[in-house]
Each structure stands twice: as C-alpha cells, then as structure tokens.
C-alpha cells in the first residue's frame, strides 16, 4: 500500500469511527460532498485550514492523524527554527521567562546588556539565585558598558531620561558588589572600541537559550524588540549572536565591582 493510500485509509477510518458518512461529514462542516470525496481520493490534496480544523473537531481526531503533511509544513526546518518567540517590546517578555531560563541554566549565564539594570529589579532574590548557580558550578558573566565612557555619555544625551545610562550601570555594579568576589563570577566593561556595538545590541545567554535585544534609535531597552533564540545546531542565529557577545567579552576590561 502506498503512503497516499495509507493516508486516505486513515481519513476513511476516522469517518467510520465517528459513525458518519462522507456526505454527513460534509454537511456537518459546511462543504460540498464532492469536496470530502476529493479528500478521500487524493491524499496530497491539503484542505483549507479552517476546513481541516472543522473536520478534525467533527471526527474527534488530531490533525496529524489525517493530514500529517499540514503539520510537517508548519514545522520550521531552516535556521529560523531557532526562533522560539519574538516580542515587539522587551518589556512584553514575561519576567517568568527570564526566571525560568536563569533557573534552567547549569553551565553558562551571560548578561551582555549595556547596563543589565532591569534584571536586578525584575527577578526576586536574584543575588541569592546567582550565588546558588555559581556554587553549583555555573559560570556567571556580566558585560557592562563603562559608566564614564564617551559612548555612555552620547547614549544618555540620546535617551534623555532621568535614570540615565551611567546610573543604571552603577546600580548593576552595586548589586554585583553585594554578590561579592566569587570564583565563577566575572565582570567586564566593553572596550572603548567596542562600546558602540555593545550599546546597540544586548545579548543574554542561558546555556543554549538566548534573549537578544537590538536597540532601536532613541528607545531605551525595554521599548526595543526582543528575540528568544534556542540553539538547534552549528552556525545558526544563536551562534551568530553568541559569537558577537563573546567577541566583546574577550576584548573587554576586567572589573572588580
């Protein structure tokens, strides 16, 4: 029996199990009887999405049982399969997503935002969480902009907000100071040469997941979009952004908060 015949048999079996006929199914979902007959006769024919939903509801079966091709076509196969979710604003990403990624990381937590200010406010008991992660062997890194750097001053003029960039960086440094000098905790400022590239793109890495924010024009970080990436293989979007952050890190200037 060919694959097409198997698929046709599955649809016919579902109709029979539901104690319907092709004509009754057509009436129930509002299509012509000949339409259902074509579905039965041609396994490669993919019904309209609305009709598939109605048919599956009437037959009480999952779509992948009758039309697996439709499910397969929805599955990403290229590099875009690494895009787990996209948010038009970073602030639209629930704080629980951040919390789950932090909690789930076991080897590498890397905050490569320019200020990393918001995470101290949004994550309850964040200092204690980081202590536990470091104690368990997880490497924790913070890459910050230089609060006294020229790019920081330029960004402050662009954003023109009361809680300016330099202040937000110093708040992160204050929290890191409370965390204390710990083996497994590293802090760096991006180099003056890299600062302009750092301030325009934030990368937050949690093992094989990353949250990436490209900063738009005059907008502060929480008003810029955010992409949630999950690594699926070599050379994908995750690797490209991870390599960018690592390059800034290795040229960065070590700090002791």
Task: Give descriptors for this structure.
elongated; 8 strands; 257 residues; alpha+beta
Write up this protein.
- By secondary structure, this protein is of the alpha+beta class.
- It has 13 helices and eight strands.
- It has helices at 3-17, 22-29, 33-41, 49-59, 63-66, 68-74, 95-104, 117-122, 126-135, 150-159, 165-179, 195-199, 237-250, and strands at 83-87, 108-112, 139-144, 185-189, 201-206, 209-214, 226-230, 253-255.
- An eight-stranded mixed sheet has the order 1-7-6-5-2-3-4-8, sandwiched between helices.
- A hairpin with a 2-residue loop joins β5 (201-206) and β6.
- It is elongated.
- Residues 1-5 have low confidence and may be disordered.
Helix-strand layout with pairing:
Elements: H1 3-17, H2 22-29, H3 33-41, H4 49-59, H5 63-66, H6 68-74, E1 83-87, H7 95-104, E2 108-112, H8 117-122, H9 126-135, E3 139-144, H10 150-159, H11 165-179, E4 185-189, H12 195-199, E5 201-206, E6 209-214, E7 226-230, H13 237-250, E8 253-255
Parallel strand pairs: 2-3, 3-4
Antiparallel strand pairs: 1-7, 2-5, 4-8, 5-6, 6-7
Helix pairs in contact: 2-3, 2-4, 9-11
């Amino acid at each position: 029996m060919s694959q097409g015949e198997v698929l046709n048999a599955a649809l016919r079996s579902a109709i029979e199990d539901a104690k319907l006929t092709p004509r009754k199914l057509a009436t129930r979902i509002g299509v012509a009887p000949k339409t259902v007959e074509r579905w039965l006769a041609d396994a490669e024919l993919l019904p309209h999405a609305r009709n598939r939903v109605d048919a599956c509801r009437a037959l009480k079966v999952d779509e992948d049982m009758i039309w697996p091709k439709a499910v397969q076509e929805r599955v990403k196969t290229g590099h875009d399969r690494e895009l787990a979710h996209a948010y038009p604003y970073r602030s639209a990403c629930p704080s629980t997503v951040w919390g789950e990624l932090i909690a789930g990381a076991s080897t590498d937590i890397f905050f490569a935002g320019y200020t990393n200010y918001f995470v101290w406010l949004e994550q309850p008991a964040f200092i204690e969480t980081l202590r536990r992660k470091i104690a368990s062997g997880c490497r924790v890194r913070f890459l910050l902009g230089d609060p006294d750097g020229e790019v920081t001053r330029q960004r402050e003029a662009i954003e023109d907000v009361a809680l300016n960039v330099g202040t937000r960086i110093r708040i992160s440094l204050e929290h890191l100071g409370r965390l204390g000098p710990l083996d497994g905790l590293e802090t760096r400022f991006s180099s003056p040469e890299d600062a302009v590239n750092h301030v325009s793109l934030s990368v937050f890495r949690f093992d094989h997941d990353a949250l990436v924010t490209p900063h738009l024009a005059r907008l502060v970080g929480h008003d810029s979009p955010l992409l949630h990436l999950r690594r699926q293989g070599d050379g994908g979007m995750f690797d490209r952004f991870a390599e960018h952050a690592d390059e800034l890190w290795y040229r960065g200037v070590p700090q002791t908060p």
